[in-house]
Amino acid sequence: MTVEVNRARALDDVAHGFLGRRGGVSTGITAGLDLGRRGQVEIGPDLAENRRRAIAAVLPGAELVTLYQVHSADCATLSVPWDDRERPRADAMVTDRPGFALGILTADCAPVLLADRNAGIIGAAHAGWKGAIGGVADATVAAMEKLGADRDRIFAAIGPCIARASYEVDEAFQHRFEADDPANERFFASARDGHAQFDLEGYVAHRLATAGVRTIEMMGLDTYTDADRFYSFRRATHRGEPDYGRQISIIGI
After folding, report:
1. Alpha carbons 27 and 179: distance in angstroms, whole number
2. What is the DSSP secondary structure assignment for residue 43, as one 8-state letter?
3. 76 close to 90: Cβ distance less than 8 angstroms
4. In sequence order, what are the beta bridge partners of 196?
5. C or N terminus of the chain, fewer CB within 10 Å?
6. Which of 141, 142, 126, 85 is nearest to 248 (CA)?
7. Which helix or strand (DSSP H or E) is residue 234 part of?
8. Quick one: 5-163+199-252 is in which CATH superfamily?
9. Which stretches of the chain are DSSP H helices?
10. Could you give the percent of the chain with pLDDT greater than 70?
């Protein structure tokens, strides 16, 4: 099976792709294109082959760069490649250097890819709910601007993530967002007593727009419901499975 690459129209002339689980060599409960490391320092043969296939599907010959993701709002700027064993603890990165493929791992959180074509500056962010409300989208746009990007020229796309219909949260979760901004109520829909359905994709798009990004594409791909195409932490948890995989989203120059 070939690697499935989901591409956004907003980034159609930029090397990028939101990958799923199809086309990899991992076996067992995380069969497919699993790029998850779950604390591993060394890269095993299956992970190495999945990385190779992912790069070849998006930007052949590029050097894949990833982060030690911690659900923060921190953004790293890539000027020279960092040691894979000493990846920055951050959830977004930007660069203006060609030859690098910025890779973000997700399993329900929202992957965000951004580009200012004119300036030759790209960004990638991992937006879980903690990073989203903390401002990871805002930080990524600011870091791109610091490199010379113009917010008016930045195009962004939000890839596969858990959809509102699949993302039930409790009242405390909703109150946290409404305390930050009462208008955030619109990202929640009614559910069973004491719970609501949260629109992570819509909220991330809102934060990008508030940061000054004018063109934002929401791809509307639900990781939770489409088990054949995507990994999902919440689905694995609900099924009582002992492990879960993570897909990668890549952008490069």
Report:
1. 44
2. P
3. yes
4. 169, 190
5. N
6. 126
7. helix 233-239
8. CNF1/YfiH-like putative cysteine hydrolases (3.60.140.10)
9. 45-58, 129-134, 136-147, 171-180, 200-210, 233-239
10. 98
